[in-house]
Amino acid sequence: MAKIKSVYICSECGYESPKWFGKCPGCGEWNTMNEEIKNTVKSVSASKTINTKHSFPKNITEISMEDEVRFDTGFCELNRVLGGGIVKGSLILLGGDPGIGKSTILMQICHKLTDIKILYVSGEESLRQLKLRANRLGVNNDNLLLMTETDVEIITEQINSIKPDLVMIDSIQTMTLSELTSSAGSITQVRECTNVIMRSAKGLDIPVIVVGHVNKEGSIAGPKVLEHIVDTVLYFEGDKQMSCRILRAVKNRYGSTNEIGVFEMTDKGLTEVENPSQMLLSGRPTNVSGTCVTCSLEGTRPILAEVQGLVTQSGYGNPRRMCTGFDYNRLALLIAVLEKRAGYYLSNYDAYVNIVGGFRIDERAADLAICMALISSLKDVKISDYAIAFGEIGLAGEIRSVSQVQQRINEAVRLGFTKIVIPYHNAKSIDNQGVDVIGVKNIRQAFEVLID
Length: 452
Ligand code: TYD
Ligand code: MG
Prior knowledge:
alpha/beta, Rossmann fold, Ribosomal Protein S5, domain 2, 3 domains, four-stranded mixed sheet, 23 strands, globular, binds thymidine-5'-diphosphate, binds magnesium ion
């Protein structure tokens, strides 16, 4: 009788070891090593190879570009994130928190793509539930095939016999391969199921969208390993309390990873937001201190967002710093610069920063607006409602130049801003479009020009 061997696999990076570790030697994470029964994992995936064509090198000039046919998904926002549409034969992983709208967007894509055959496999909902959702979203597509199945072998059999033009798997954590003894959702199952589906689909040149759940750390459960296998990784982000949803590409073999798609969840499903700046700025308080508008560049698109700061007397010895939608460590650094270089003392004050609308800014160009919102709240002096500021702040308190200034200015002017505060070095060769564009060198100077 074959001896059952167990193996410990890290749920973060997939590191395998015959013995348990508290800290994974592969990625350094704690408590991520899980016991699984060792199978002949390699042979499972190898036996599923559909594509048995011999490969040989080809001259680059002989490769026809027709190989990269893209489907228009019907959503401009999604097309942009994908780099122009779904590439034939590609494997797309769609991740996001539960209830964020992954199944909804897949169903809506089915509605838009009526002239191709789509196979939607769900391991989470019954056919009736799928039909109910489809009805709710007004999906009406004769070419849509629904299937509830969790056995990957049956799914690949169906893919081979139906030969659909697009396959959707919702979700990979519910799929199982019967050869493997570990439970659905374990790292081995997730990895091998993806491998098997990928080999089957790539052999037939069928694109596949795979839904993946996100674990509590925010990465796709079973994850780094998966991210290496697939061609494109998309994340659906957003605050569930808010209706704004942002689709972001984390990896894309067929396009840029900087682009974002903005959607809004309504009672009729997800709708595209063509004018995100306007949505993020709607309902902005006027005539109050502690708020400043900034412009962040997401891919090729400038997006305006409101930064709010609140500075209050600290009740305890240790002042609190909190921020939503911005990097906490960057906030701490900016506060240090405010104290040391600009003379705004915050060590006896709690400081809170919020980017309104559930939006997240990772760009350095937001530094200036964060500082301005904090100073405005500290001094209780309001910043002009028609002013906007952007610029990176250096450790010496200087305002450093940022990229694509003209595009940011154009967007601000389009939304009716009349005073634009930018880094001094950027102010030389720009078209001010008839509004006040002021180049500033340091934090104090920026605040002086921003107040009425
Ligand atoms: P869903 O797509 O099921 O989430 P996921 O597959 O990512 O887990 O989205 C479910 C959420 O979306 C649920 O909270 C209700 C909301 N929703 C709407 O607001 N409007 C709609 O038309 C639909 C279908 C869902
Ligand atoms: Mg779902």
